[in-house]
Amino acid sequence: MDIATRVYNHKWQIDPIVRSLIDTDFYKLLMCQSVFRNSPDTRVEFSLINRSKKVRLADLIDEGELREQLDHIRSLSLSRGESTWLRGNTFYGKRQMFRPDFMEWFENLRLPPYHLEKIDGQYELTFEGSWPEVMLWEIPALAVLMELRGRAVLNRMGRFELQVLYARAMTKLWEKVEHLRRVPNLKIADFGTRRRHSFLWQDWCVQAMQEGLGDRFIGTSNCLIAMRREVEAIGTNAHELPMVYAALAENDAALAKAPYQVLADWHEEHDGNLRIILPDTYGTEGFLKRAPDWLAGWTGIRIDSGDPAAGAETAIQWWKDRGEDPTQKLVIFSDGLDVAQIESLAAQFAGRVRVSFGWGTLLTNDFRGLAEDDALAPFSLVCKAVSANGRPTVKLSDNPEKAMGPSAEIERYKRVFGVGEQERMEVVV
Amino acid sequence: MDIATRVYNHKWQIDPIVRSLIDTDFYKLLMCQSVFRNSPDTRVEFSLINRSKKVRLADLIDEGELREQLDHIRSLSLSRGESTWLRGNTFYGKRQMFRPDFMEWFENLRLPPYHLEKIDGQYELTFEGSWPEVMLWEIPALAVLMELRGRAVLNRMGRFELQVLYARAMTKLWEKVEHLRRVPNLKIADFGTRRRHSFLWQDWCVQAMQEGLGDRFIGTSNCLIAMRREVEAIGTNAHELPMVYAALAENDAALAKAPYQVLADWHEEHDGNLRIILPDTYGTEGFLKRAPDWLAGWTGIRIDSGDPAAGAETAIQWWKDRGEDPTQKLVIFSDGLDVAQIESLAAQFAGRVRVSFGWGTLLTNDFRGLAEDDALAPFSLVCKAVSANGRPTVKLSDNPEKAMGPSAEIERYKRVFGVGEQERMEVVV
Predict the structure, then answer these.
(1) Which CATH number fits domain A3-157+383-391: 3.30.565.10, 3.20.140.10, 3.40.630.10, 3.40.640.10?
(2) CB–CB of B160 and A207 under 8 A?
(3) Locate the Nicotinate phosphoribosyltransferase N-terminal domain: which residues (chains A, B) (predicted)?
(4) Pick from A2, A171, A211: CB nearest B2
(5) Integer Cα distance of A305 and A310 in angstroms
(6) Which CATH number fits domain B3-157+382-394: 3.40.50.720, 3.20.140.10, 1.10.10.10, 3.20.20.70?
(7) What is the complex's ipTM, to 2 decimals?
(8) Above 80 in pLDDT, residue B119?
(9) A114 forms bridges with which residues in the sheet?
(10) Are strands B217-220 and B188-190 parallel, antiparallel or unpaired?
């Protein structure tokens, strides 16, 4: 595959960015099955949120092209081969992870309509409908916007500039892989679908990790790539579960219990390496302090905001307090990682806890410094549940820069979950 | 064209390195036509000379593969399209540069046999026969050895290592092109066929120069690439003409005249930009001092050894002494150039003389620093006329490191041409 030539050829034809319903993160499908079972009738609204205001997406991306790409996604349905793979493959050591009733529903699914408007140089892009349907928009919507913004820049470049651009990006990634080779006992996965430079580029990154890291590369969150490249599909659960459960809580007492209810439902469905706690939605410290004992028996914790080393220390201390042996536990780092941080975290926690890394945007979209005005640098774009059954959702996380929701609700959540002062950390990607 | 993939695929099939008799330097064909007219019956021997003894070619390159490649070259004949191009194209502004009798001979040509032996870690590769036939072995023989040595290294690399290798090489070349863009009034040609990394890579380099430099890139010495990419074929004459003429001289007086006889014959055949003096075969200073006045009327001088700035100053002074206006004259630099030297020479001679550059090995084979142990760095390989009608040839040049021939003959030539002390300069490529 010659990426530069493919990209060059994009200039003369419509080339869909997302070509499959499973060109999405594995945890979306796992969560979707949970939601399909537990809350199929919950109505949600998801919305695009560009945290990097200076990137004026509506000035960069043609609305017609964006609609074309989104419409194309609405035309997709699960192919026979994809369905066979989901039904027959072993995920996390388990056969038939996806139940027949869910698969039947998924095989007949088309994604629901979207609502698109230009407002002040940005796109307002929202999706409304039943939770299991709407939630599947998140990853493809992000991938489409990120790639269309990239294409707008690439379209101005000549054929050789493109070749050299990709040459530089490949060189850069391979140097990262060569650094990672020297990290003892590394376990690392690709988590870079949502903010990837492009599908082809993510696919190349996965191959580079396969070739460069061997079995230290444990898989990809991208189902389509996992299927095609025959690597493990990786992922468990995300903030949208506690956010929607919390929004639906009838009062403060129910709200305080909501994050645990999410994991109680998960506990019923999954075991082993799928039992990973994501503790930061409403503050890690309070969450762990008030957690029921059965949660301490789970396999691991994913650290997705705040200072990652501090988060891991908190987790280790919590396991010790609950009589668990941290060396048998797993910490998954997944927040804006790059090589230097991976190296230092691996060194800091070696022998103290099992560690793995979910490497996202700076794996699949580190085009920083490669185009004029850094026009291809990744930025902080998310697509989140903003309401459930008409009630607003709230996320706090361990970094106030990542908080979202109406401010009165944020204050209420902080009170209910006992969140005090938090350290502000810049969000790059 | 994805070079890395093509190279990777080489591993499973025989892939000829030289696929055409015009995959050679344009000046070879011009000189061949001259020789075909003036000395068709002269018997010559050409021999491979590896000036980089530490590169043990016979240890690196399989003899069977080398024979396969050389045999393949002996199977080549001029194709109809190639012949049409040579007959019909305009070269240096002139139609029918190649005369019908020469073309008819060329169309029926197959290259003569070669003699190959392994001696002390090196290949002794020689070609004997009539001058116009044997001389056409020089460029393909060099290209085959250089590329087989490269393939021996590439064969040990994985697919991604290869992709990254070419990514780095592309990045490196493009950075050079970007530097050259900023040189005012640049005129530069590709002279890199003989020691290129590979045909595909030279072809990429030419395209990069076309795209990056526009009409500042004036053409390539490679006829096949000139034909396919529709750029000018560039080149005039080389040391083999005076070397063979000198070897055939019956006595010292005839020897002293031989270099001028070469140019007298050339003067009869060519005019304009093809009248370029190559003065260094037996020392530039003495050559110019004793040159007949009609030579001062020629268009330019090519500087191919010694300190290039000093050589150009000597030429400028010579033109002034002969009453010529240097600003109307052309200096062509062609000895082991790279970007920094091109920049400084262009700056030093701007406005004083017309300048152009023949950029060779460090354009088409700058893989220095890109493989372990620098195993892909270019080295100093040549293929020269070593005898003519049984008499040894001699080359002195303006750098004693480039001198060749039996030492008694070297001393005789130095005496006849009045060459004194010369500055030694390291020969990199």
Answers:
(1) 3.20.140.10
(2) yes
(3) 22-145
(4) A2
(5) 10
(6) 3.20.140.10
(7) 0.71
(8) yes
(9) A127
(10) parallel
